[in-house]
């Protein structure tokens, strides 16, 4: 086949160009252009295959990452629960010590004076167990007396 003679691919390109109205005059595509286009398609196909392999290799890693994210979320919830439990225990220690310091008989553990002194004791110890809680949470112990 000579270089002047259009191939089947170039005829198809001409027909497509005319059909879609992109060219008014006949499109002449030589074999060199067709070879370049074939090379481009081959490069594109190789790139697609490479990306598919990368995706297949990355998928287990993405699954593991998702599992670790889920574990981290569960651990955050557990840490928050334990922090609240720790702070509650620290508040009780501070209230008990405040009761001892006040040396009052039958003083209700949630009286304002006990809570105020308990907050001072927590500061002395470097604890922040009263900082992030409402008064209701701080004084809620079921209404028992110390």
Approximate shape: rod-shaped
- Quote the beta fraction: under 5%
Total helices: the number is 4
Q: What's the helical proportion of residues?
A: over 70%
> Rg from C-alpha positions?
39 Å
What is the overall pLDDT average?
76
- The low-pLDDT segments are 1-6, 142-146
Beta strands, count: 0
Structural class: mainly alpha
Please write the string of helix (H) and strand (E) elements.
Answer: HHHH
- Largest sheet at a glance? none
Whole-Å distance between the termini? 106 Å
Describe the structure.
The protein is mostly helical and 146 residues long. It is 71% helix and 0% strand. Mean pLDDT is 76; it is low at 1-6 and 142-146.
Task: List the defining traits of the structure above.
single chain; 4 helices; 0% strand
Helices, strands, pairings?
Blueprint: H1 8-19, H2 31-102, H3 112-125, H4 135-139
Helix pairs in contact: 2-3
Summarize the structure.
The chain has 4 helices and no strands. The longest helix has 72 residues, at 31-102.
